[in-house]
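hey can u check if this looks right to u? its 395 residues, i copy pasted from the old doc so theres a chance i mangled smth
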Amino acid sequence: MISPVMPTYARAPLSFERGEGCWLIDDKGDRYLDFGAGIAVNALGHAHPALVEALSDQARRLWHTSNLYRVPGQEKLAELLIEHTFADTVFFTNSGAEAMEGCLKAARKFHSHNGSPERTRFVTFEGSFHGRTMFTIAAAGQDKLVNGFGPMPECFDRVPFGDHEALKAAIGPETAAVVIEPVQGEGGIVPVPAQCLKGLRELCDDHGVLLIFDEIQCGMGRTGKLFAHEWSGIEPDLMAVAKGIGGGFPVGAFLATETAAAGMTAGTHGTTYGGNPLAMAVASKVMEIMIAPGFLEHVSRVSGALRQGLEGLVAAHPDVFEHVRGEGLMLGLKCKTANMDVVNSARERGLLLVPAGDNVVRILPPLIIEQAEIDEALRRLEAAATSLESGEKAA
């Protein structure tokens, strides 16, 4: 008999009742150090007092009106995002997948609006992940995402990650945009080098196509900049944001230049819940905290200490780990043993990690972590690796 909750997840045997900062407490009272942060969502940890206050205050006043009316919270957050990014305008959504859908729609609308309706195709990259809608799983094209859901929308030209010649060859007269994650998340924490992003910007400009960044996972301070592409010094035309921007509350957005959004006029796109007062209250507070002096500097400082510690673990356990990769507090441990064995062993020792592609374990702690929590996480990961080595030798 099928379970009441549709069985589409292979869930860990844990049920959490509350969270405190970087810690989660389960229904038995056991404490777990959370270095997954809800898959890079809980950027400010659990039950952050400022977020609790913002949500509670808004909940006492107004939850929902729809987008038939002005939502002052949207205007406030949009102005903050515009002030601190490349964008001129913002559309608020409920999730990252919706934000990506909005980017793809806006890119097609841009070309149609400018007299090139034939430009409907998108260049994407192998190993990417952009969401779970039909459009976004087709963009990634991975078998595990698309099997059984076909036929897929036939408008994506996927190229191998890092193959510059294939990328150039894929751009043609029907190309609307190139879509890329500055740091692949689900694909295994794979950063795109700054010089490659610069070259991609030039390539898009030369061919009259738009550049779309998916910063759903790598954005909102995770790499030590507000957005990961800032390290390259270039800007996209459209960008999808979610996860960390809500600090745990469901909210997303797609950002655009005035040029890229030229076709997005009244009636062309919409949402019932997107940008509701509750989401805006929380996300605005997240933004205020992240842009405050010292916050991103803290991320850079602690990420350096964490990476150094992980490099030490790789050196001490070469039969378990291969290398560390990633940026800021978006790090990955490439494993020699099965990555789920590492995740499970760490969980048994009270440390929560997240698996990814290419046999990588993602390390995505809240951005508020301190040295003591880093030291404790490294100690528990050390114990997990030692246990796996002992098990391998015993076998």
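Residues 16 and 26 are 4 Å apart (CA to CA).
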